[in-house]
Amino acid sequence: MENMHKVIGHKGWKIAYFSMEIGLKNEMPTYSGGLGILAGDTIRASADLGLPLIGVTLLNRKGYFLQKVDEAGRQTEHHQEWSPSDYMDLLPYEITVRMQKRDVRIRAWLYEHQSLTGSKIPVIFLDTDVEGNSLEDRMITDSLYGGDRSYRLKQEMVLGIGGVRMLNSLGCSITKYHMNEGHSSLLAIELLRQNNMQPERVREECVFTTHTPIESGHDRFSHDLVLDVMDEDVDLDALKQYGGEYELNMTLLALNLSNYINGVAKRHRDVSRKMFPGYEISSITNGVHSYTWVCPYFRKLYDRYIPGWANEPELLVRVQSIPDNEVWDAHMLAKKELIDHVNSRSNAGLDYDTLTIGFARRFTEYKRPTFIFSELDRLRKVNEAGKIQLIFAGKAHPRDTMGKAFIEKIFQYMEELKGEIKIAYLENYDIDLAMKMVSGVDIWLNNPRKPLEASGTSGMKAAHNGVVNFSVLDGWWIEGCVEGMTGFAIGPKPEVDKTLEQIEKMELDDLYNKLEYIMIPKYYCRRDEWVSLMNNSIEMIAYYFNSHRMMRHYVTEAYL
To answer: What domains, with CATH codes, occur in the chain?
Structure first.
């Protein structure tokens, strides 16, 4: 406990980083996807840079879910039980939050992330599985994004209100509260209480990052539900004033009580300004933690030729000092590891020498997971120009029936293209599988419907390993794409004056034509040009789109 006080209890300025999910270890299923992985990279970069930051999140004792997919592509969800005591320490502090006319007790677990530099960042995991709570209340911190609207609101009370009270109990001196998406915005209501309902004082302390243009990503709760669940902890007049007259909009609550607001890419900033007119919204483009997302084979290369890169990823701009053959050899080692893994988990029979395209992300409609199969005759023509093979991975939310249907469609295309194009689908996409995929494929495919990709970070991870990006011009790729140098765009620029149907036709033409006439010839016939693309990806993308640069921007633009 003495060490705990050194890490948490010391006085001085500190940033409290609140996120519904934080992904730190594969064995700790406290994340669902991009938001949680980004939060984990934020913690890692903050530790490397020695920032005075403390993370606050929920424990999620049963994880998001363990995905099982049968031979027809039907997804089922299962609890992912794990033991928090294997990775973190239980702190001797409890606080309460009032819900439905009873006090819900909340305790905290401490996880310390230690950087290679020796610096540590504490992360507080809030837990309601406490003796004295009812069975219903003990389950509040069981499942990430599980349950009904009442369950979600209770979780967000634990995170926002409970998180602030727990930091107070721990003796933390917080100068900035960073809300990573609107799930934690009830913390602003708790701060209002602590500041005699003075909104200006609260705004001075609050930073808000919005992460998605997707409507379902912005939580809303009816006032009837709020009155029922929040009980004595609710000031309905304040919630209506700052969170919406007709319903509690968690994004609106954060917008109204934060002095600094940002989107996660320049394009996302512009989209967010249209979504929320009247608010000053800035942008800090996301980044990924370089050391975490570089595979062992490239780490070894970078260590030899670019010493210091791990804590100064901007040094990756010097990648041209590495001989091309060594870059290619490192990639092929990563590819072999991925192909062996795929073949051990499926009967796809993938091989090492075929151009391999990877698509891995949450399976949902706007991500268009089956886009490459839109015109099978054209895809077959691409495959005749040079053999391709495809690897898919990703979970669909348990209530996303369309997302689940996309997984089944992948399996149908596997059957339809059997003997022509090898296709693999890997279940239970997680941190370890992501690491294998972003380093082992040749092309990283991303084709969301514009402008619904706020940022996207998987392509940044791929670029760190010399994998070539092939993506629509949305999110971060608008900033990262130098056509034919750092990768390739699918379709027109965002400002093109075309209908949605025309844009989709242009995207499909681009997808097939660039594969057939540019990428396949380079890969199979002009290997030196392909390796040049790989080098450019590292030199022009990895050096900038990393979480060290991102956190320096947060410090100078949001925290100070």
So the answer is: 2-286+550-559 (3.40.50.2000), 290-544 (3.40.50.2000)
